[in-house]
């Protein structure tokens, strides 16, 4: 099935708009389950017809059967009334089941679509969006739609059909009493319109407040160790309460409007019945042939009024539900409308097929914010196939930014970053991210491990690789991680959330195994051993040596052993390459690299024989 958001995006414009515009944009998702929707909607005329028929049968029983003393006809009317009740109940049951099934299936599709979309969003989106906000949109906002689909929009259609059928029956019976009964209609319209607009605003504020509070909660739980170490628990609770107060105020106001609308509708209903009795009572004492008003007719109209005000009264609750859903839809549309990263079309050829790792960078400039200062300010360098190039520099010099550009984690660079493929030079910005990352992989200092087994954390569920335990084992052996994995129980060993069951070095080895299992053409090591413990230092270094063989490598602020092994070293300072060349040449030059060597690398060299954890140059 084609992605519904692709068909609907841009057709309705911005997500902000009327309630029906928001629901109309949502319709393509629901249309995927149209069989259940149509079954539920086909029950609408049945429910409406039975609702209009029952008061008519009451009138028949009072004015004809009882008035004439016809017991047999009264029993027949009673059986017909029972059949109408059973038909209405059965049709309502089928409708509720069908719409509920369609609604939950639609929500499942939407949840899957949003999750897939979020995973394709670029890094700049996550820089400006708290994770708690994404969780709220992907869970509570979507859940708000489920109730609307099952008991909101489509049941309102039923209510409208019931109201129209009742009004038609009332006009058919007596147009004068009908007009008296509808005297409060203009007042009802004003009330509903006013309350509807206010409820929508409040529900949007509720969703926003809930999102902010959820984001704060997620952040504080992630940093709970820091809070405990510095005794900030009470301050965190107070801030959480302050954010909760904003949510509570909006909920209280929304509940007041909801309850007010419900009570006003109930009062208007009682007033209309009173008006009907007041105006109809005198006609009951006149000749029926002249007035046309009978006791059965009055009973039927009272029944009709009670029936017509039930959906109108419940409309207030359904209206609040719809407003909650529309508020959620607007937030969801804001997420869906975020442009995702491009993907290689199915069946398209790989533009980097046969690429051997050659890279050419010319006048590379990059900044994280539009209009802000550049982090990289005109960098030039080359990487030949199979060459190891190290990048060193102080904090803020742009080392990590360089790796992010080469993997297209961030876009928007100026200048040229071209890959020397067999068919000719290919600009990095012209290669879709998923294709580029099939050839260029990065091992970062901050290793993220999932709360799953070792096999998943190496394969990440990739088709083919996940089904080849021998290939996963070979990757673990390559980086010398198989020994400790086997001691812990093998590939089925669960590493725990963020790898809490492993040491920093063991976690880093699993990160190297991910790369070894995929054999990239260009490998980027971004401070990949800065936090490694000394017990596994030799294993990590051996793993790096094996990964470096036969491929192009960009090493960022790495250990001395790897930096000295590099064919070329780039020294970055304030976003500019100030020096480049082999280790011995740069050291003899006595410039920036020599200073970094004295500050960090030299101490590591001196401490290497003692087994102490060596420092690294400032990143």
UniProtKB/TrEMBL annotation:
Q: What is its main location?
A: membrane
Could you tell me the keywords of this UniProt record?
A: ATP-binding, Membrane, Nucleotide-binding, Transmembrane, Transmembrane helix
Location comes to:
Cell membrane
Q: Where are the transmembrane segments?
A: 36-57, 77-99, 149-173, 179-197, 259-281
Q: Enumerate the spans annotated as ABC transporter domain.
A: 359-599
MF (Gene Ontology):
ATP binding
Q: How does it sit in the membrane?
A: Multi-pass membrane protein
User: What sequence ranges are listed for the domain ABC transmembrane type-1?
Assistant: 46-324
The record ties this protein, via InterPro entries, to: AAA+_ATPase, ABC1_TM_dom, ABC1_TM_sf, ABC_transporter-like_ATP-bd, ABC_transporter-like_CS, P-loop_NTPase, Type_1_exporter
| Listed name of the protein | ABC transporter ATP-binding protein
Per the UniProt entry, what species is this protein from, by scientific name?
A: Nannocystis bainbridge
């Amino acid at each position: 099935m084609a992605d519904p958001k692709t068909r609907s995006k841009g057709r309705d414009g911005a997500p902000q708009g009327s309630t029906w515009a928001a629901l109309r944009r949502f319709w393509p998702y629901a249309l995927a389950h149209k069989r259940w929707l149509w079954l539920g909607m086909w029950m609408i005329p049945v429910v409406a017809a039975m609702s209009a028929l029952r008061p008519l049968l009451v009138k028949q029983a009072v004015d004809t059967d009882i008035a004439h003393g016809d017991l047999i006809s009264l029993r027949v009317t009673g059986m017909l009334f029972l059949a109408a009740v059973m038909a209405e109940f059965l049709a309502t049951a089928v409708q509720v089941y069908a719409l509920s099934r369609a609604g939950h299936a639609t929500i499942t599709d939407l949840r899957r679509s949003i999750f897939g979309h979020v995973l394709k969003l670029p890094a700049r989106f996550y820089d400006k969006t708290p994770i708690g906000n994404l969780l709220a949109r992907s869970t509570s906002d979507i859940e708000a739609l489920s109730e609307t689909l099952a008991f909101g929009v489509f049941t309102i259609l039923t209510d409208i059909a019931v109201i129209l059928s009742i009004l038609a029956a009332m006009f058919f019976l007596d147009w004068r009493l009908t007009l008296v009964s509808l005297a409060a209609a203009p007042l009802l319209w004003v009330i509903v319109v006013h309350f509807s607009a206010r409820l929508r605003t409040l529900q949007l504020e509720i969703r926003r407040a809930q999102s902010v509070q959820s984001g704060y909660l997620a952040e504080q739980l992630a940093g709970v160790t820091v809070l405990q170490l510095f005794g900030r628990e009470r301050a965190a609770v107070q801030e959480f309460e302050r954010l909760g107060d904003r949510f509570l105020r909006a909920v209280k106001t929304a509940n007041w409007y909801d309850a007010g609308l419900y009570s006003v509708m109930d009062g208007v209903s009682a007033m209309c019945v009173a008006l009907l009795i007041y105006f109809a009572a005198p006609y009951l004492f006149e000749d029926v042939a002249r007035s046309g008003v009978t006791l059965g007719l009055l009973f039927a109209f009272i029944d009709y009024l009670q029936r017509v005000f039930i959906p109108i009264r419940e409309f207030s609750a359904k209206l609040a539900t719809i407003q909650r859903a529309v508020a959620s839809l607007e937030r969801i549309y804001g997420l869906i409308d975020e442009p995702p990263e491009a993907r290689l079309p199915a069946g398209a050829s790989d533009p980097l097929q046969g690429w051997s790792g050659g890279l050419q960078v010319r006048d590379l400039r990059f900044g994280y914010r539009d209009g802000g200062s550049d982090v990289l300010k005109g960098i030039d360098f080359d990487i030949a196939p199979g060459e190891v190039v190290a990048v060193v520099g102080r904090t803020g010099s742009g080392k990590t930014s360089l790796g992010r550009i080469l993997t297209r984690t961030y876009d928007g660079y100026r200048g040229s970053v071209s890959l020397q493929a067999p068919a000719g030079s290919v600009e990095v910005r012209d290669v879709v991210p998923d294709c580029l990352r099939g050839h260029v992989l990065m091992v970062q200092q901050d290793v993220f491990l999932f709360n799953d087994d070792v096999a998943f954390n190496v394969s990440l569920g990739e088709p083919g690789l996940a089904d080849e335990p021998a290939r996963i084992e070979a990757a673990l052996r390559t980086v010398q991680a198989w020994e400790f994995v086997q001691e812990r129980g093998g590939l089925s060993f669960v590493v725990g959330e963020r790898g809490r069951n492993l040491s920093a070095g063991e976690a880093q080895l699993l990160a190297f195994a991910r790369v070894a299992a995929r054999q990239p053409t260009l490998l980027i090591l971004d401070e990949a051993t800065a936090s490694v413990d000394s017990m596994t230092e030799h294993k990590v270094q051996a793993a790096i040596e094996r990964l470096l063989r036969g491929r192009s490598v960009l090493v960022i602020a790495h250990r001395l052993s790897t930096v000295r092994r590099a064919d070329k070293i780039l020294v970055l300072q304030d976003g500019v390459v100030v020096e480049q060349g082999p280790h011995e040449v740069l050291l003899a030059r006595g410039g920036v690299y020599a200073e970094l060597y004295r500050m960090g690398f030299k101490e590591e060299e001196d401490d290497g024989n003692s087994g102490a954890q060596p420092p690294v140059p400032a990143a």
